[in-house]
Write a structure and sequence with these properties.
Number of strands: 0
Strand content: under 5%
Shape: rod-shaped
Number of domains: 1
Length: 143
Amino acid sequence: MTDWDDGRTPPADRPPSMGRLMEQVSEQATRLARAEIALAKAELAEKAKRSGAGVGLLFGALVIVLYAVGVLIWAAVFGLADIFGPSVAWMWLSAVIIGVAMLLLAGLLVWVAVGQLKKAAAKPETIDRVKDDVATVKEGMKR
């Protein structure tokens, strides 16, 4: 271990001073904190990049699905009305049944989506590591 600024090793009979040891602890703690902050930034940037790409793809899929759902709803209403009978009066009942089924499906999708978003919003592991590092430094300072 070097104690001098120029990298030389101090003589064995001369241990480093308390001031120098405290300076080294301070320097190392600062380097550790900066490294942990950089790691946290990198983790958050990666999560943001993945989330942004995922949201963009979901939006594109949503546009296509909206058109497809419109056509399928139209077909379902006419198909259900045809089952009830040849009268046009049954169209309203078919539309209500299909509409309620769609609302139930939308509710299920929202419930699943909220669960996924809560998982994505979990705090990064770096925060826990920084807390552990601070606790270790504090414990070391007490000795």
